[in-house]
Design brief:
Blueprint: H1 2-28, E1 30-37, H2 38-46, H3 49-56, E2 60-67, H4 69-80, E3 88-92, H5 96-101, H6 109-114, E4 140-146, E5 148-152, H7 153-158, H8 168-178, H9 192-205, H10 223-237, H11 251-256, E6 262-265, H12 268-273, E7 283-286, E8 296-304, H13 312-322, H14 325-335, H15 348-351, H16 356-365, E9 367-368, H17 376-391, H18 397-411
Parallel strand pairs: 1-2, 1-3, 8-9
Antiparallel strand pairs: 3-8, 4-8, 5-6, 5-7
Helix pairs in contact: 9-17, 17-18
Length: 413
C-alpha cells in the first residue's frame, strides 16, 4: 500500500514539475511583433514562416499583422509619437529616410557587420538605398522589386508583331496597332503609386530624375522631365491607354482578360499568373524599352526596426532568419517577390523560371527609385496626383511639372 502511495506521489510530483517547467519555458519566450504590408503581410500570415522561425529561435514567438501599405505607413508615424509600434516592419525604400529624419529608426550598421553581410552577396542595390545622406544605414533588405514589360504573346501574334518593343517609339507604334479603342488597348492604365512607378520607368529611360543629384531640389522641370511627361500624356492622347476614364480597368484583370496587350509591372504578377493556368503560353516578359538610358524603375524593399521597439534582439533574429536562402525562395514561391540574396537565384524555382531573365536583365541594366529624401510618401502623393490630372487633360506637362516642383521643394527641406 505504501509502495502504491509512493508511486502515485512521485507521479503527481512529476506532472507538477512538468507543468511548471512548460509554464516557465512558455513565459521565457518573448514576442516579436512583425508588421507586413499588403500581399507580403498576408503571405507571411498564411505561410509557415513564423513556425519555422520559432523552431530555429525557440526563445521567441511571432505575431504577424498585415496592414495596407498606407495604413502601415501612417501607423508607424503615429507610433513615433507614443502610439503602438511593432518590433520590425516592412515598407518601401522611400520611407527609410522619412522615418530616419524623425529619429524613429534603429541604425543597422552593427547588424550588418555582426552577420558578416557582404554587398557582393546581394543584388547590387540591396543595401545602398537605405544609407541616408549622413552615411547611416537604417534598414535591411527584404526583397528586390524590378519592373519589366508583360505582354500578351497571343495578341502580338494576331497583330503580326513578332517581338516586344525595345524602344519607346516602338512601344507607341505597337500600342497603336494593338488598340481598337473598344475592348482592347495597347497598354494598361495604372493608378496611384503604381502610376508614379510607371512614369518613373519613362523618366529614367529619358535620362531624367525627380530631384537633383544632391536629392535637395525638384528636377522634374528639366528637359528630360518635360519630355517624359509629354510621352506619358501621348499614350492617353492616342488612346493606347484608355483616354476615357470609364474604360480604364484594373491592370492585372485587364491583362488576363485580353483587354490590355501590354503592361508594366513587377514580380508579384508572377505569383498571380501562376494561379491562372489558362494563361499558360499566352504571355511573356521582356525588359522595358530603353531610350537615352537603359535605367528603369526598381528598388529594394526594406525591413526597419523602430528605435523604440521593445524586442530589438528578437527583431534582428527575425531579419537574420528571413535573409536566409530558404525563406527568400519561399517568399518568391508564395508571393512572387524577388530575393535579395544572389545565392537564392541558384534555386530551380528561380533559375528555371521563364520570366526571370527579364528581371535579371533589368537589374543588370540599372534601376532607380525615389529614396534618401524626407517626406518620401507625401512627395509621391503630390506627383501621382499631378499625373492623374495630366492623363485627363486637366494640366499640361509644363504646368504640371512647375506646380509639382513648387510643392516638392517645400517637402524636400
Amino acid at each position: 500500500m505504501k509502495r502504491i502511495f509512493f508511486i502515485l506521489l512521485v507521479s503527481v510530483l512529476v506532472v507538477i514539475v512538468s507543468i511548471f517547467t512548460v509554464s516557465t519555458l512558455a513565459s521565457d519566450k518573448t514576442v516579436v511583433k512583425v508588421w507586413g504590408p499588403g500581399g507580403q503581410g498576408a503571405w507571411m500570415q498564411s505561410s509557415d514562416l513564423a513556425a519555422q522561425f520559432e523552431e530555429a529561435y525557440p526563445q521567441y514567438s511571432v505575431e504577424i499583422e498585415q496592414l495596407p501599405f498606407d495604413t502601415l505607413h501612417d501607423k508607424i508615424i503615429a507610433g513615433f509619437t507614443g502610439g503602438d509600434l511593432p518590433d520590425v516592419f516592412m515598407l518601401g525604400d522611400q520611407t527609410v529616410a522619412e522615418f530616419a529624419v524623425l529619429g524613429g529608426l534603429e541604425p543597422m550598421e552593427d547588424f550588418k557587420k555582426e552577420n558578416n553581410y557582404k554587398d557582393e552577396d546581394f543584388m547590387s542595390d540591396a543595401w545602398s538605398h537605405f544609407i541616408t545622406l549622413d552615411g547611416t544605414l537604417y534598414a535591411a533588405p527584404a526583397y528586390s522589386e524590378y519592373r519589366v514589360l508583360f505582354y500578351r504573346t497571343d495578341l502580338f501574334e494576331e497583330a503580326g508583331i513578332s517581338n516586344p518593343p525595345t524602344t519607346y517609339e516602338e512601344l507607341l507604334d505597337y500600342g497603336i496597332k494593338l488598340t481598337n479603342g473598344i475592348d482592347r488597348f495597347g497598354f494598361a492604365d495604372q493608378s496611384g503609386k503604381l502610376d508614379l512607378h510607371f512614369f518613373s520607368c519613362i523618366l529614367y529611360a529619358k535620362g531624367g530624375n525627380f530631384y537633383t543629384d544632391d536629392h535637395l531640389t525638384c528636377n522634374l522641370t528639366a528637359p528630360a522631365g518635360i519630355e517624359a511627361l509629354e510621352f506619358y500624356k501621348s499614350l492617353y492622347d492616342q488612346n493606347i491607354i484608355p483616354k476615357d476614364p470609364a474604360k480604364r480597368t484594373d491592370p492585372y484583370q485587364g491583362f488576363i482578360q485580353g483587354y490590355s496587350a501590354m503592361a508594366e509591372s513587377g514580380p508579384w504578377w508572377l505569383g498571380l499568373l501562376a494561379k491562372q493556368p489558362e494563361m499558360d503560353g499566352k504571355w511573356a516578359t521582356a525588359p522595358l524599352p530603353a531610350d537615352k538610358t537603359t535605367i528603369t524603375y526598381g528598388h529594394p524593399n526594406a525591413w526597419m526596426i523602430p528605435a523604440q521597439a521593445k524586442n530589438k534582439d528578437g527583431a534582428k533574429a527575425w531579419l537574420e532568419f528571413f535573409m536566409r536562402v530558404g525563406p527568400q525562395v519561399e517568399f518568391f514561391k508564395g508571393n512572387g517577390n524577388l530575393p535579395v540574396l544572389l545565392a537564392a537565384y541558384d534555386d530551380p524555382a528561380l533559375k528555371n523560371h521563364p520570366a526571370m531573365p527579364a528581371f535579371l536583365e533589368a537589374a543588370k541594366r540599372g534601376v532607380d527609385a525615389m529614396y534618401n529624401i524626407p517626406n518620401g510618401d507625401p512627395i509621391q502623393a503630390v506627383i501621382y496626383g499631378m499625373l492623374s490630372e495630366l492623363k485627363d487633360g486637366k494640366t499640361t506637362p509644363e504646368k504640371g511639372a512647375t506646380d509639382v516642383c513648387q510643392r516638392v521643394n517645400d517637402l524636400l527641406k
